[in-house]
Structures are given as C-alpha cells and as structure tokens.
Amino acid sequence: MAKDDITKSFKFIGTRPNRPDGFEKVTGRAKYGADISAVGMLHGAVLRSPYAHARIKSINFEKAAKLDGVKAIITRDDFPKDREGEPLKLLENTIAGEIAYYDGHAIAAVAATSVFTAKEALKEIEVEYEVLPHVIDVDEAMKPDAPIVRKNAGDFSVPEGSSPNVASYIEFGRGDITNGFDKADIVKSGLFKTEAAHQGYIEPHACMAQLDHNGQGEMWVCTQGHWYIRQMCSEVLDLEASKLCVTPSEIGGGFGGKTTIFIEPLALALSKKSGGRPVKIVMSRSEVLRATGPTASASMDVKIGMTKDGYLTAGCVEFRMQGGAFGGSPVSEALQCAFASYNMEAVHHIGFDVLANRPRAAAYRAPGSPMAAFAVESLIDEMCTDLDLDPIDVRLMNAVAEGSKSSYGPKFKKIGLIETLEATKEHPNYSIELGANQGRGVAAGYWMNHGGETSVSVSLAEDGSVNVSVGTPDIGGSRASIALMTAETYGIPYDSVRVNILETGALGFNEPTHGSRATLASGKAVYEAANQTIAEMCRRVAKKWQIDPDAVYWENGYAKPAGPNAGDFTPISIKQIASEMDQTGGPIAGHHESSIRGVGHSFGVHIADVEVDPETGRVTVLRYLVAQDAGRAVHPSYVEGQFQGGAVQGIGWALNEEYVYGEDGCLQNAAFLDYRIPVASDLPNIDTIIVEVPNPDHPFGVRGVGETGIAPPLPALANAVAAATKVRLRSLPMSPTKVLKALKTGNDGC
Amino acid sequence: MNKIHVKTNINGDQVEFLADSRETLLDCLRDHVGLTGSKEGCGTGDCGACSCIFDGELVSSCLVLGVEAEGKSIETIEGMAGQEDLHPLQKKFIEMAALQCGFCTPGILVAAKALLEKNNNPTETEVRYWLAGNLCRCTGYDKIIKAVMETAKDIRETA
Amino acid sequence: MMAVNVYLWASLKKFTNDKDILTIEATTIGELVSVLRRDFPGLKPFLDSGISFAINGELSNPNSNESIPDESEIYIMQKLKGG
Question: How far apart are alpha carbons B101 and A222 in whole angstroms?
Fold first, then answer.
C-alpha cells in the first residue's frame, strides 16, 4: 500500500484481537525485573543519605566487610574519576561523591549472600556527615540568598544576576505582545503551582547484573529502553558499550521513569568487585519514591488576553520548574506545550530550570505538558466564566489546524484538534444536568510525540509465519499493535506473527518505549522491513515464472502476476514461498534502521464532572470523558487503555498525589499508603472517544497516543471544582484540606 | 541464621522449604518455591500485587510470615488456570484488554476470583471497593472492573 | 548556494548579534550546523547540548546528511524527550 493511500479498508488494523503476551501475563509466568535468579547470585542493597544536603566526611565499612556473607562493598571510590558533562551527572546521581544532594541519595552499596546479610551490612557502615543547608521549594531556590545546591551549575543560557540555582534559561516567542494585550477586552493573569508527582509504576526497579574484570558483562533489567541502559552504564563505568549485553525483562510500568539508570551501575560495580558473581538489586517502594522519578514541581505565571467574543489575542508565561539536584526539569517541553493548542498572534515564553535538594527528575508521561496545561487551561477557563462563553466554543474559535503556525514556531501538518473538540461537544456527557455542589470542567492538552532511533528486523519462518524483532519493550500492548501492522502489511493472519523484543546485541540502537513512539516508530520500521521481504518474495516468484520482478505484485499473502500482460500464473502463497526458501536462495529477512520521521502531533480534550463535599472538601469524580486524536487506532482497546490510564494518572496528580517534605528536607510520604495514587473505588468509568485524523506521514496513519492523556485532567478537574464551588484553586493537589480552606477563605492555594 | 522447616500445601501440591523467620510468605513463594507470579510492589500491604489465598482468606502475602504457612493451604496465581483451560477471569482479562503492563494482574485476578466465589452478582461499586486494595497504574481500572463484571455475568448465566 | 531561514529561540540572541532569525546558505543539516558554529562560536554549548530540528514543520532528530529544500523554514529546538 502506498504511504499516502490511507483508507479505512484495513483488514486487521482497527480490530481487537487478544494480545500475544496475554497468556503469560494472566498466569503469572511472565518474567519481570525481580523474577530472575542465577546460580551463585548475590543480593545487593544500597545505603542512602538520611539528609537532604550533607557533606560526606568519611565512610568506614570495615565492620560491615567483616560480616559473614558480605562479598563486596562499593562507594564512589570504585567508579571512574574522570567523567564529565552528562555522564558525570548520571554518575553523581547513581552514587554520591563528596556531597549527598537529597534524602535517599545513594552513598554506598553492598553485595552479600542474602538480602538480610546485605541489609545488616548497611547498618554497620559508618558515615560521618556534615549537614548543609537545603532548599526544596522552587520559588525559594530562585531567591538570591537561597542555599546553593551545586556550585557553578548554571549553563551558557543563564542570564547574569540569576540565582545560583538556575541551571538553564529559555526564552522564545513571536508577535507584538503589547499590541496583543491592547487588542484584548480582558487581560487576566495568575500564579499557578503544581507539586512533584511520581510515575508510580507498581513494579519497583530491579536488575540482575554480571560484570567481569575484562569489562564484559550482561544485565537483565526492567526498563523502557535497554540501549539507554547500556549507553548510560557504559558512560558511567567507562565500559565498551558492545561488551555489555542488556536484556529487557517484562516491564511493570514506567511512564518515563524507567528511561534512565539508578541501581544498574551499582549492580555492575558490585559484580565486578565480587569477582564477577551475578548481583541482583531490587528497590523497595520507599527507595523508589525517595530516589527515582519523580517529575518536576512547578511555579508558573500566566497572562492571557481575550476579546469579549473569546478570541485569544496574546499570551505570556514564565515557568519555574524544579527538577532536583542535577537539573533537567522538562521546562522547555512545558513551554512548547503551553499555547500549542491555539492560534495566537503574540506569545512569549520564559522558562527556568531550577535546582533543589530533591531526586533528579525523570521523564513522566508528556513531560512538562500537564503543568503547562494546568496553568494555561485554568486561566482560559476563568476568562470563559468571566465572559459567560462556552469553553468548547472558545477553544474551537482559537484551535490550531493544518497550516497553523504553532506557538513554538513550526507549522502544523494535518492535525485533529478541531475534530476532537467537536466530538466532545456532541458527546452526551457534555449536556447531562448537574446537581448541587457539582461542576463540569473542560480542558485541552497536547503532546508532540517522538520518532527516534529505531532498528528492527523481520524474518520469514519455514512455514510462512513471521518473526518480528523490535527493541521497544512492550509496556501496554505494543506487541499486539506491531503484530497487527505486520499482518496488515503481509495480508497474513494476526496469529501467524510473533513479535519478540530483543536484547542490545541483536539489533542496532533503539530509543526506549518513550515519547509515545513504540507503535508509531517500531510499527513504521517493521512496515519498511516487511516490505523488503515482500520484494524478495516477489523476486523469487518472478524467477520461478521467468518474468520481470516488476510484473509480480503482492496481495493478501500471495504473490500474483500483475495484470494480463505478466502472464497467466496461479498466485503463490507466503506459505509455499517460505517452504521453498532453502531451494530458492536461502533465508528471507528484512531489516530497517533509521531515525523515524513523520511524527504526528496528538491533541486531547477532556470533560470532568465532579461533586465537592462542602463539609470535608473531598472531590468525587462523577463522570469523565477523554477524546483524543489517535491518527489511526491500530488496536482500539489498547488506545482506550492509554487514554484511560493517562487520565487517571492526571486525576491522581490533580487530587491526591504530592511529594511532602518536612522541615528537614526529607520526604515524609515515601510509601503507597501516604503517596496515594488513585484506587478503583475513587473513580468512575473513564469514557473514551477515539478521534481518527490519520497522520499523513505514517503508513497506517498512526500518531502515537500514550502521553497526551495525562495533561488535560489537571485543569479539567480544577475547572470542574471551580464550577462546583465558585472558588478557584490555583495549586495542586486539590486535597480535601486545601479545598476546605479554599471554601472557607477563598484562598486559591498558592 | 536459624532456618525453619515449613511443610505446606501450595496450589494442591505438598511443598517443603526452609524459611528464615524474618521472611514473608511472598519471599518464600518467590525465592524458595520458585513461584514468581506473586509480585512485590510495596512490601507494606498497600498495593495488592502479592495477593494470595491463605486457608481460604484473601491476604497480602507480604504481610504474612513464611513460617505461618506451616500446615496451611495456599493458592497463588499459578494455581488459577485449569489443566486444560484458563480461568474465566483470566480469559476475560485478555479478551477485554484489562491489563497493560501486567504486573498488578496476578494480584487482581486472585482478588477478583475471591470476590466472585463469595458473590457472583456484585454491583460495580462492590467490585470497585473489593479491588480498592489492588493498585493498578496503567489502566485507570475501567477495563478491569468491566472484565470482572462480565465474568460474573458469564458465571451466573452458565451456573 | 541556497538560502534557508533558521529560527532560534530568543534566549540565544545574545550569541547571534541579537538576531533570532538567521538566513544561512546551506543544503544539508550538517552544512547548516557548520555555518552556525563558524559564524556564531557562542552557540557551541547549545549545539553540543543535544538539539532537534523542525524542517518545514516536521520534527526530527538531527541528521547531518539530511538535505534541506531551498527557502526552508528551520527551527532549532532542544532535543525532544518523552515519558
């Protein structure tokens, strides 16, 4: 099928078959990170800083080393001294050097013959700390006299006179801002704040690693991207990348948090120091919350101008985002997403990436977009209320479409925001009557999606079934979507395709399953690789028929003569071609490697109905609708699953989830009991509308759907709470305490 | 280190293992018996990924000591499917895409089976509250709840 | 040689004589980056920090061999990440 020939007449795409890995996953047989053991394996455990900021004056592990069963103890001394740039930051975050930068920062690690022995040894390690002043809040860290997290941390972009905790600065925009605000009938501004939220995958980080003194090693690890693990571990430990073979386990959720390293270099270093014995490290939940993830916390100023009819005339944002002790908050992405849904003549964006004594922020589903959506979509909603305008109509009036210049510059190709807005407006949820203390909120959200480096191979088995090899771990059904696209390309049954996820030695470099790219990028690459094998099959059939290869075409699993001039031949099936492979030139396989192009932007619109209990401040979500442009839903059930899962993570961020720090700068809620993610009884069904405006640059029209869904819930719920209570909360989470205070005092939480 | 000899019954099989007195039932299942289907998501009884049936009771196996298994009968996810076929809940979960990463799935299936054995006609609210101790971060629970409700309906219709 | 318009974020203007739109003669991304490095040495840390391009609206990873159509609109942005 030609690339631009995107029709609805697919045979497999759009159907809902059982996922190929379903059986293993419902029977408990699927192997996740902690499920593997090896002969002679040791257990690793990590000593972590009890202080938010402290100089490590000395570490004495003599007593610990004498414990029976302790085989290796490592500190920063066991790692290369000459790392710089990003590898140095990765190393610093993996294990502290002179200074522990946050509560939970790794200080030392032990490998022993049992988990209990390893943990006992940790207690015997004596560390002398000099406690240093710390800073947790992003606005506090921006002050000129704030405690300095790391000296000389600012990069080339930081303007003179900035706080020493500013790591980088970004500014962009276009149009005449003053003139834009002059054209407005109302101009409104506000300060908005969100707290850090953790990705909250249920599977804690786990790996088993083995490293010999000659620098050759292997690793089994739960990760979104094993080439990233290989690259980062190699950089941190100064290994030759190809000597480290990384095999991905099944992965128990990641949401961006499993795209980087934490315990992996520690396990390798412990293995090396214990003479090459395999070492397994499994994090506890408390370690996961203290030392991995989370996303950034944000403090955001927004100013928007609107005419009385609802046209947006200008917008300014200044976002300050704290991404932990090493920088790396998603502030540039947040700025790019802020006004991306709207046609605005004048926009201006300023962003600060700020350091604080917190764990290094990791990517979290549409990094930056949820915070930006909270600030911008909340303020637009306030203006719609002030002007008595329908929030969907206002968004329709201003929505970007094909050819619109995005708020961050480049022009959009074909996109589906208008179609998505129209679909939500027509949905019955939008007109259900509400009762007392109830309110409805609308919000839009955006994610650009990502193609990225991709390498796949496809091979024909001797019976005509097909093996597909990809490097993107299956985190939520991508084996199924890739098998569907493969079946569609060949015209063979879905069940005749097996999708395998291979280790780092078996394919070229693959970026992780991140950026909503697994189905989009691996799918596009598999389509190219499969077409190579189809071309080869046609060549072999052409030889058999003694005609020109161009006179053979492929349809529904058969090589066929192309028209009457090609000759009168009976079509030959893939099964027959495969069974004769050994006689016709040997194996048939195809492969594709590239940085995948043709990413499709995805817009979403959510409608939330809530009821607020005026006595307790508790917010109950009554009904919830997600509409999003999928481009093409390859397996609609898993597309819905992405919409629903993203929405519920957003609901958690909006209502419950936050990092709570004490005066001492230590995390006070490092457990699932206190860091409360949504449970089944908190929620209604999550209704979905899959909008399909095909991506013209993908062979099947796919856009990538994983991330957008987490952005709109934050403002949608804030807008719904405001509608229910007539009080606006500008700070998340909207916990009962905060809502109750707002009801009593009108305080917006900031 | 004093290990304790434990004799128990797991999924209908007589099993013996040596347990450290500090080990949880979950540790023993995973590390001594090789049944890694039960997962540890928290170790503090908050997430339900280690749900097992312990002498007929639904428990978080991370909150039970391994030595407590002596003389008891334990059912885990590995015992859920029959010799010939999957349990109706397992089938329905696959059919209705009620799992994404699959890590919480064993615990949720064990807990849902316990519910349907007590009550094969639960309301949606009852299902949501019964499963409130089983965290899932991927699905938003929608398809899980629907799969349990559908299975209950099928069970009632074939009963 | 063909000319293309390169759009930079305003915070980089201090390295480009206060201009955020540059007209540059280049036929490939590689040539474009070389010209930027030669004419605006202050951009080096930015160009080294990991960047991506939008060529006529299409976002992509940097590929120095990629050819650029005449009169293209090119935006240079920080390297894209995702969750």
Answer: 11
A654 interaction partners in chain B (CB closer than 8 Å): none
* Cβ-Cβ contacts under 8 Å, A255 against chain B: 137
CATH of domain C3-78: 3.10.20.30
CATH number of the domain residue B144 falls in:
1.10.150.120
Q: What is the CA radius of gyration of chain B?
A: 16
How far is A217 from A268, CA to CA, in rounded Å? 8
Q: What is the CATH number of the domain that holds B58?
A: 3.10.20.30
The string of DSSP codes covering A418-471 is: HHHHHHHHHSGGGG----TTEEEEEEEEEE----EEEEEEEEE-TTS-EEEEES
SS (H, E, C) A457-505: EEEECCCCCEEEEECCCCCCCHHHHHHHHHHHHHCCCHHHEEEEECCCC
Domain extent at residue A475:
22-31+451-596
Do A458 and A570 have their domain in common?
yes
The Cα A47–Cα A56 span in angstroms is 13
As a whole number of angstroms, the distance between CA A412 and CA A343 comes to: 11
A526-554 pLDDT per residue, tens: 999 999 999 999 999 999 999 999 999 99
Residue whose token pair is 């993107």: A472
Residue A639 belongs to a domain: yes
Q: In what order do the strands lie in the sheet with B73-75?
A: B13-20, B3-10, B73-75, B51-54, B57-60
Spatial separation of the C-alpha atoms in residues B44 and A668, rounded to whole Å: 16
And the tokens for A219? 């690793």
Structure-token match 């990003």, residue found: A86
Chain A residues whose beta carbon lies within 8 Å of the beta carbon of residue C42: 156
For residue A32, the chain B residues in CB contact (below 8 A) are 36, 39, 103
Decide which of A255, A282, A309 is a domain's last residue: A282
Residues of chain B contacting A637 with CB distance shorter than 8 Å: 96-97, 143
* Region of A477 on the Ramachandran plot (φ > 0 left; ψ -120 to 50 alpha; else beta): left
Sheet holding C3-7, edge to edge: C21-25, C3-7, C73-78, C51-55, C58-60
Please give the structure tokens belonging to residue B139.
């699905």
Q: Whole domain around residue B73: which residue ranges?
A: 3-79
Which of C5, C6, C7, C9 to mutate: most A Cβ within 10 Å?
Answer: C9
Contact A157 C11 (CB under 8 A): yes
What is the pLDDT at residue A16?
Answer: 98
Which H helix or E strand runs over A112?
strand A106-112
Whether residue A28 and residue B77 make contact (CB cut-off 8 A), yes or no, is yes
CB A618 within 8 A of CB A480: no
* Cα of B159 to nearest chain A Cα, Å: 24
Residue of A156, A228, A260 to mutate for C, most C C-beta atoms under 10 A: A156
- Specify the higher pLDDT residue, A556 or C78: A556
- Residue in A closest to C62 by C-alpha: A595
User: Which of A259, A282, A305 is a domain's end point?
Assistant: A282
Q: Which helix (H) or strand (E) holds A265?
A: helix A264-273
**Omega within 30 of 0 (cis) for the link into A80:** no
pLDDT one-digit tens code per residue, A259-306: 999 999 999 999 999 999 999 999 999 999 999 999 999 999 999 999
**In which residue are the tokens 């596009």 written?**
A524
Phi/psi for A353 (5° steps) reads -95, 120
A413 contacts C58? CB cut-off 8 A: yes
Bridge partners, residue A111, by sequence: A44, A72
Total domains in the fold of chain A: 3
Mean pLDDT of A169-191: 96
> A41-92: per-residue pLDDT in tens?
999 999 999 999 999 999 999 999 999 999 999 999 999 999 999 999 999 9
